[in-house]
# Entry
Amino acid sequence: MMDTNRLKKRRNLSKMMKKAGLAVLTVFAVFSAIAFMLPMVLTFSNSLMSQAEINANYGVVFKNATTGKTFMNEVVNLKYIPDIVSFDQYRDVLLKSPDYLLKFWNSVMLTLPIVIFQTLVALGASYSFARLTGRLKEIVFFIYIIVMLMPYQVTLVPNYLVADKLGLLGTRFAIILPGIFSPFAVYLLTKAMRRIPKVYFEAAMLDGAGEFRIFTEIVMPIVRSSVYSVIILIFIDYWNMVEQPLTLLNDEAMHPLSVYLSRINNEDTGLAFAVAVIYMVPPLLMFLYGEDALVNGIASSATLK
Amino acid sequence: MKEKLKKTGVKVRKKRKRSVNDPNTLFAKVLAVPSLAGVLMFFVVPFIIVVYYSFVDNPINKHFVGFENYKMLFKSLAFVRAAKNTAALSFTAVPLAVVLSLMLAALLDSKIPGKSTLRSFFLSPMMVPVASVVLIWRVVFAYKGTLNAELMKIFEIDDLVKSLGAMPLDWLKSPKCLIVVSLLFLWKNLGYNMVLFLSALNNIPKDLLEVAELEGASALWRMIFIKMRYLSPTVLFVTILSLINSFKLFREIYLLTGANPYEGIYMLQHFMNNTFLTLDYQKLSSAAIVMSIVMVLIIGILFTTESLFGHDVEE
# Structure
């Protein structure tokens, strides 16, 4: 009798311990999630402040970029909530400062062709890599992986050479063309297509379907979510580009917003917050729309072989 | 009669089957052509030319000089410093990225509520262009920024500073900038790595874990002895991925501090950019070759380590 009581107590205790542990974990998780969101939330809330408010708060940081070692008589005051919510900055970006819109357009003109054509080119190539057999294919795929793993510091030199030879330096194509043939999408889509059971192909062929029909009616529907995740991943990679425009585009007027945003000066800090928000809206929208596809796509890329 | 028909039917079918089942169709081969041509033209062939350039005195004379360009490269102070800084940054940021993202994945693998919302929160930074949040980071980490202001408030250093003449840290213009940049790197990359680990955790056979639990293995024990073995290919992949991403950290540094940063955070990409400005082909090509060799070596070593450690759980 006493024994069972003790056992019960013990069980209750361990249950409580588990619950307490879970509570601690939950609190920790929530706090870290908030910390992850903070930079975005702050950027957004600051974009709703007037230029005067921004200057009053952050003037010291942006006024003189060469901050000497001075005493801290005035410091920055990071504000979470604007005193008065104003959409002036957005209005100014959209109506009064064509510069930012132009740079936004540059980003679009660089990113869109790469996203569209890299996906198309990769769909073809990955179908081949998934279908074909033989040693040569293995070797070629291995080369693709090596190229994919090389950092910009390495690939920019060959890219520069080709752009120079073709007379493309300083034009958008110097970035777009290597972007289209970057092997990343091929790699990810090949992994997705290889998971399609071989019997699907055999059954379709026995039923008299041609390769084209197999491609469009069997493979495409199966890999659709992978294609979407590839599109998102390519998009954010190039929407965020800095290295390529710095080396391949001398003309600053052609630079995308991802480079230009860092060159704000003091009068424009308010505007810059609004532009920063506008700039993160397209990728965040894609994320909201396709998060599950993206997660599956990332998960399926998990090994190199 | 029937017998005969059947026979021929089978025969015909067999013949067709052989050709039908051959996946090496012309269609499949043709589809690879655009990509193959592009990769050859924009990556492979120019890379071979880069190898060639690294052994000649200049692209016009084309006089073979052996390893002279490489010797010059290693004598260049800028290159050595950039290489050291990049290595230092990678060695801090990559292990942190692997360990912390594994912890996040373990957190989301536990029984806490609201997991899918938390996952979205952890993952969303990867979608945000660095340029968009750099403003806030500058406000926080500038010399007169929030962090220093808060630190001064908390520790009441202000008077101390005034009396001793000591100064607060200038985060973006001191070796501490590595910390700021690593934070930005972790903030952006942890979510992606976490998803990789989460899917690997999901793929561990559930019955194995249940048996271990029944046998009385604690959560920590199960993590170390069962999960880690199954996770080792993912650990390898996340390490390689984080390594490559850490080479891209130039982006964050450039956006935070401009083209000419404090020398402690002068990275290989800074070196390359400056060399592009003078169009020193010998330096550019030999540096690119050295880096690609180092990259291949590191990845090779990682692969060998992983296959020694995790070969017994491969499917």
Q: What stands out?
A: Confidence is low (pLDDT under 50) at residues 4-18 of chain B. The two ends of chain B are 50 Å apart (CA to CA). Chain B touches chain A through 107 residues (CB under 8 Å).
